[in-house]
Specification:
- By secondary structure, the protein is an alpha+beta fold.
- It has one domain.
- About 15% of the residues lie in helices and about 35% in strands.
- The strands form 5 sheets. The protein has a 5-stranded antiparallel sheet.
- Strand 6 and strand 7 form a beta hairpin.
- The protein starts with 7 loop residues before the first strand and ends with a helix.
């Protein structure tokens, strides 16, 4: 059986008669209850209200041991929330995201050209308030002139190309419960993961707990 894929699609395209590019973020591959891949929380529940952000890193970039700083270095170009309304699917469903944002064309001396493009996923409505994450590289931004650029990202391909920086491939089986399918389906997922603190931070936390215990015993 063919591996069911989740697509997070970023498209930079000129709209007719307008000077704009469009960023489109979605994991809808073929439609609800078919072969779409879904976003999944660490507890195996489908993500509902989590952010899927499309953007680039600045400053010191990404550091798996310092997620807070990594988030502050991330410039969001477009984002959407899992479980929000999807025009394509005709409703709102956990695990899915669909959104687009109009921006200026990426051309000329635009500093975005040549930068790596990432999808940064969190389990809350913002990256800063999220406690679990998924992150993978999608492509390198190129100029929209003379031809508009289209960027496709598939986290499960990213796993095989070492471009998945946070999260893992998972799966979930459930009954989509709609008119098109009444049987249980197994979906491939991008399963978010809680970051592991730096050893130094863990040691400091342990020392703090130990000191607190000693103080309580003395009292």
């Amino acid at each position: 059986m063919k591996l069911k894929l989740a697509y997070i699609i970023g498209a930079l395209a000129m709209a007719s008669n307008t000077n704009a590019a469009v960023y489109f973020v979605t994991n809808i591959s073929s439609g609800y209850a078919y072969s779409d891949g879904l976003f999944q929380n660490p507890d195996n529940s489908l993500s509902d209200g989590g952010i899927v952000a499309f953007g680039v890193f600045t400053g010191t970039g990404f550091n798996a041991n310092d997620i807070a700083t990594s988030i502050s270095n991330f410039t969001i170009l477009a984002s959407g929330l899992t479980g929000s309304n999807s025009v394509t699917l005709g409703g709102a469903f956990p695990g899915y995201v669909e959104t687009n944002v109009d921006t200026a064309n990426i051309e000329g001396a635009n500093p975005l050209i040549g930068q790596d493009l990432f999808v940064f996923v969190g389990n809350d409505s913002t990256l800063a308030t999220s406690t679990a994450f998924g992150l993978f590289k999608t492509a390198t931004i190129q100029s929209d002139f003379p031809n508009e650029q289209t960027y496709l990202a598939n986290p499960f391909i990213a796993i095989t190309t070492d471009e998945l920086l946070l999260g893992e491939e998972g799966s979930i089986t459930f009954n989509p419960n709609n008119a098109l399918s009444t049987n249980e389906e197994t979906f491939t997922t991008l399963k978010l993961t809680a970051p592991v603190p730096e050893p130094s931070a863990a040691i400091l936390g342990g020392l703090g707990a130990l000191i607190a215990c000693v103080r309580r015993r003395r009292n």
